[in-house]
Design goal:
alpha/beta, Rossmann fold, 2 domains, 15 helices, globular, binds uridine-diphosphate-N-acetylglucosamine, binds uridine-5'-diphosphate
Length: about 375
Amino acid sequence: MMKSQKVKILAAVGTRPEAIKMAPVIQGLQQQPWAECRVLATAQHREMLDQVLALFAIQPDADLDIMQANQDLVSLTARLLPAIAATLDAETPDLVLAQGDTTTVLTMALAAFYKRIPFGHVEAGLRTGDLAYPFPEEMNRVLSGHLARWHFAPTDSARRNLLREGISDNAVHVTGNTVIDALLGVVDQAPEPPVELGPEDRLILVTAHRRENFGEPFRAICGALRRIADAYPDVQILYPVHPNPNVREVAEMLLRGHRRITLCEPLGYLPFVGAMRRAHFILTDSGGVQEEAPALGKPVLVLRHETERPEAIDAGVVRLVGPVQDRIIEASCKLLDDPAAYAAMARGLSPYGDGHAASRIIQVLGAHFGVQVAL
Ligand code: UD1
Ligand code: UDP
């Protein structure tokens, strides 16, 4: 690098969680005198991505506007690859960054590989070990990982997953998860959730969107929610519904109209953090929520058979119940009826980070280009 030239970094964001988790990295890089960080929005999500970009005041330099209603994986991938490649030709970055395991990440990693541009993978090394769960994310993260020059692993267990796959230790950096940076940055501004609650009411917050839960598993989740709401007069369920039609149509059909269940549009990040903070506990198949809730001291029941985030399970503050009606009801009743069981899960701890993950990532990149960056 010539002294007068800045390092050109292109950061890709496609979906809501990528924007939340990349925001601290993008904001941090944009303050570095040695770096020029530009942003590519693939807009694999549209409204949900725009909500987050607006909150963090991030303006994309390129926007592929790729989302289509009920998009399928093949056409999404096929449309993204040449569009990202054209952006790389126009932007000529020195390196690219992407976060997580979405189709945006896989296509960014692959396009950068074809263009011989080094790729830094944020939130590297998460694994369930089963390509079918979560689908297609496990495949996306394995393939993207093998295309990466820098692996920013959130935890030591993620680092060990990478080493087991033959990734060189020198290329792996344990940084913590940037979601904790984002969460700590906004939690003090988070408002009360958009649901009427008496002082004694207990709020259960719900989210669900995983492809492998479409169909019967999702109907089982909705059935469990109705039974819980029927059984506890002091429980209110707040469920911001993902706009995917495979989720929305079933949730509307099975849950709309119950007086203790509030279905709403996806919440902005600030109100969602407010809802997590007010919640008694959370039912979710989300990845990010499994990371955030423990830091807020909120028990989580995970509506999946497996998780790539074992740390909070091992600590006893998150429990896998699967998208299985009886197990969801049994575990929810335990949290509602047994104060000791509740207290055991409602301990505030943060296995996924200390709020300085983005600084560590920036330090690693700076060091690569011969720049010392203070934490
Ligand atoms: C995607 C990611 C998933 C991630 C999730 C975060 C893939 C394959 N999946 O899943 O890993 O956990 O994002 O939420 O990359 N839609 C809208 N407006 C929006 C967003 C989505 O209408 O702002 C609807 C559209 O009909 C769209 C559909 O949701 O086609 C599915 O979006 P898609 O990004 O393909 O999948 P997600 O289930 O959101
Ligand atoms: N989230 C949000 N509004 C909502 C639901 C979730 O802002 O209505 C946030 C949540 O706090 C977390 C992220 O979105 O940071 C998780 O996104 P999602 O569950 O869609 O994806 P995943 O993490 O499973 O990839």
